[in-house]
Amino acid sequence: MSKPLVSIQGLSVVRDGRSILRVDELLIERNDRIVVLGANGSGKSTLLSVLSARLWPSSGEVSILGSHFGSVDLRSLRSRIGLVAAGLGRSLDTRMTAREVIFTGSDGALAPWWSAYSPATMAAADHILASMERSLGHELAQRPFVQLSEGERQQVLLARMEMQAPELILLDEPFAGLDLGARERLMLQLEQSTWLQAGAPAILVTHHVEEIPRGTTRVLILAEGQVLASGHPSSVLNAKNLRDAFGIDISVTELKGRFALQSL
After folding, report:
1. Whose CA is closest to 112, among 189, 166, 121?
2. Per-residue pLDDT tens for 61-76?
3. Is 74 exposed, middle or buried (0-12, 13-18, 19+ CB in 10 A)?
């Protein structure tokens, strides 16, 4: 039996004497598609910071992609992890076009001016971009990234992550701030490019059950820095767990692999 690609044992993160996250055990296998769900302050972002090798826990054992915290340079580990987060878009050179944002994902550069990219890399970026443009119904390639809508930016950042071919995929609230149309276009791109495809394990953080993609293998519900429930979406997305997590009585429905809720 193969070892899990991510193993967390006895994890604790303490800040100012207060525990903000505790995870007794979390194992992530190849092809896992995991959604981390919870209210503000539940520990979602802290867990993602550990998984992205950007936060050292207060205690516990963490192994990511075969590398154990304490015996590896975390900077080298980060290069193997694909992260889509709002902060990345703010770090990119403001002069970059959408096409440049995508192809620089192949080496993680924040600007294309100091690297030479092969014809194969450019062709791969153009293939991804063409598919995205067909979905949107208009061209993006030469438009400045900073002038794109929030939904278009998120789609470009997801495409950039695809170019990296990461061994672990982390998505930090990718649908935040999007209107209904932009959310569903990004959802379709995510499902087709990552979520419904065999490959690297992927973890998505969200507040909303409507943002759980089809094909999700596990939902991890956090509350007050601890794991409240973990399991297949159909088993853990119930009124009791969501009431305990969000403090409100909620009815959950499922239709064709997508979820919706209504307060009672």
Report:
1. 121
2. 999 999 999 888 888 8
3. middle
Residue 206 has pLDDT above 80, yes or no: yes
Rounded mean pLDDT, 85-107: 84
Tell me, rounded to whole angstroms, the distance of Cα 210 from its chain centroid. 15
Statement: the pTM of the whole predicted model exceeds 0.85 = yes
Residue 192's nearest CA partner among 217, 158, 154 is 158
- Cβ atoms of residues 249 and 41 within 8 Å: no
Under the banding of pLDDT at 50, 70 and 90, the label for residue 1 is low
